Amino acid sequence: MDTANHHLLVQTRRLRRQRRIRKRLNGTPERPRLAVFRSSKHIYAQVINDEGGATLVSASTVDPEVRAEVKYGGNKVAAAAVGKLIAERAKKAGIDKICFDRRSYKYHGRVEALAQAARDGGLLF
User: Fold this and answer.
1) pTM to 2 decimals?
2) Residue ranges per domain, the chain?
3) Please, are residues 59 and 66 in contact by the beta-carbon 8 Å criterion?
């Protein structure tokens, strides 16, 4: 198999996993969705109300608050810092219950660290 076809196959599988997870999750005003995006160097989290189509709060490793705390954004320490920050911002916005959207990522490593830090910060899911 050549690399172009392999890349297309991997991308298709990732999209299928993402859709399979998203069809069960829907962010409401009472229980918005915490969506995670992970790149090789950074991790991003958004609390989204799908009914209104609006991002309520967000945090990532490119935020100045997190950058001051961690040197590199692509590890579990950085993910935990983002989880803690998203929990603080959500609590400030009056959000305490969420549903967790891991997208196509396994609940492991950085995604798990972010989720655990958000739980420790007071978010319920």
Assistant:
1) 0.90
2) 3-121
3) yes
